[in-house]
Amino acid sequence: MVIVIDPQIAGISGDMFLCALVDLGADKVKILNGIKKSEKFLSDSIIKQIDFKKIEKHGIEATTLFLEIDENIHEKKGIEIKKAIVNSTKEIGLSNRAKVFAESCIDTLIFSESQIHGMPIDSIHFHEASSIDTLIDIIGIAIAVDDLGMFDEEIICMPIAVGGGSVTFSHGTMSNPASAILEILKNSKLSLHGSEVKDELTTPTGASILVNLSKISMDYYPSMEIESIGYGAGKKDFDKFANVLKIVKGKQKNNFQLDTVKILETNVDDVSGEIMGNLIEKIMNKGAKDVSIYHGIAKKGRPTNLISVICDDSSMYEIMDILVIETGTLGIRVTTSNRFTVPRTTHDIKLILDGKEFVVKYKVSSFKGKNDFKIEFDDIKSISNTLNKSIKETESLIRKEIIKVDTDYG
Hints:
There is one protein chain. By secondary structure, the chain is of the alpha+beta class. The protein has 3 domains: 2-255, no CATH class; 259-341, Transcriptional regulatory protein pf0864 domain like (Alpha-Beta Plaits, 2-Layer Sandwich); 344-405, Roll (Ubiquitin-like (UB roll)). 35% of the residues lie in helices and 34% in strands. It has 11 helices and 20 strands. It has helices at 14-24, 28-38, 78-91, 96-117, 132-148, 179-185, 204-211, 273-285, 313-327, 377-387, 391-405; strands spanning 2-6, 45-57, 60-71, 76-77, 125-126, 154-157, 160-163, 166-169, 172-175, 192-194, 216-217, 224-233, 244-252, 257-268, 290-297, 303-311, 333-341, 344-353, 356-367, 370-375. It has a 5-stranded mixed beta sheet. It has a 4-stranded antiparallel beta sheet with strand order 15-16-14-17, covered by helices on one side. Strand 2 and strand 3 (60-71) form a beta hairpin. The model has no long low-confidence stretch (mean pLDDT 89).
């Protein structure tokens, strides 16, 4: 199964996400009962009425949260909200994954404020997020995601609409997106985009939920068979679009896994083959997924080498440093690319070959019901040298031994 969260037009808030999950089929009674049990952990807030209802938003029927509360709170410490959420997850008996998710969401909110204001986490006060709304959103969503079994699914997030213009809140007026949104999305693999809408479309709670639920950002829908669609209504109304968050659930039409990678490219025309060989080794040791070097002709008929590196965000900057230091290049092109990969698992196995014991790593891939495996070349090379056999003979010997003890490959 695959889940697509689509905030690319109307953005996302906590209540929009919760409502979209209910519209998708999450157990409404279970969610409301869990929220009501959580109410006591914020003693200065009272839920007078709460329910989910169907409304129309710009021609789209969507679910909205009808909430009436009684509270007179202007600010509350972040750790107070966190304590209430942690106690709530225990009280209502959430699964371990749902507990971790709920706690991670509030931690993300607190940490973002700590980074912005340069203050210790224990000193952070919430203003806009001090209401019981925050607890309701996070606890309700944790229950709903658990109920729908989404923690086991591939969750893809489309680009997040944040709007434009300026926003005014407890700390004054600033450009939109506000610092909290930028801090929350920083270093995540999710992407955002602005628009001509002069309003905040994505809230900090909504962003916090996304970064703790999805690690895959795509600009387009995957190949899928749609099973169900959930629409969650936002509180505001806009003239040109329906203020709804869309969540789509379906089956992928292939066995591919999805992720996002960075592609680094640079052209060099005065670097020797020895340096290139050493460069590949250094880059791979820094966590690159692959390195390729292509020969070509550049301007003025000069021979050139195009160095192309596939890596992830965490290793990108170190690899860029190596490219500049080792080649002297003056520029590196960086692009983000969605990648489809065949599912694979890594295995270790102990083998006795010619009376000697070796530990061999190999990867088992699975596609359309068929499995295959590939042995780690460094292990083949090491064993080849130890046994004084050719690479080809050593690989054949290892494959036969793996087949004897592990039938998962085929």
